[in-house]
Amino acid sequence: SGHMNRPESEMKEMEAMELAKRQDEEVAEEMDALKSTIEELQESIKLHKSKQIKLAKENKKYVDAVLLLKEKVEIVNVSNAKLLYINKTLESDSLNERQRRKLVEAISKAETPKEAKVIYETLQSTVGSTEAPSVPKSLSEAVSRNSSLILNSQRKEHKKDDDIFSERMQRLAGINNKKNN
Asked: What pLDDT was estimated at residue 66?
């Protein structure tokens, strides 16, 4: 059966089959290429997921380390504040040994730097001033100072509310004043 005697419809059908076969091969090659690309992408996804898991673990480790270091810095900060105020207390000439010991004990119980400062300032102002009394430089300063001291002592007798507050703070601090002894 040669080409000459074949009907045209059969020839068109043969051409369509040949065209379909070629297209099938092209589609198959394209499909193979797409499948290999999909496989590569899946491998890439697996690799990235494993990297992501590794980085998440590493990140958690770093976060834990930062939190631990933050706690340690806070502890050191509190210790430094306590030491600062304890040293100021121990260097104070206006306090006796018992008062110093009480102040040091109170400051040692502080849990924050701010709390240590408040305790120090409150108890220091209650117990006595850390400033040394100023010495008069001239005779006129000495005379005016003595008269002002007398006037101040008379004014203090009138301020019983302040004395009550002072006594209360001293009792809270565990410091006995002369009136109670």
From this structure: 97
Residues composing the chain: 181
Q: How many helices and strands in the chain, by DSSP H and E?
A: 5, 0
In terms of Cα–Cα distance, which of 128, 124, 131 is closest to 85?
124
Q: Which pTM value belongs to this model?
A: 0.46
CA distance 87 to 146: 33
DSSP 178: T
Distance CA 136, CA 19 (A): 120
Q: What is the DSSP letter of 111?
A: S
Alpha helices in 109-158 (DSSP H): 113-127, 139-158
Cα 86 to the center of its chain, rounded Å: 25
Q: Are 65 and 79 in contact (CB under 8 A)?
A: no
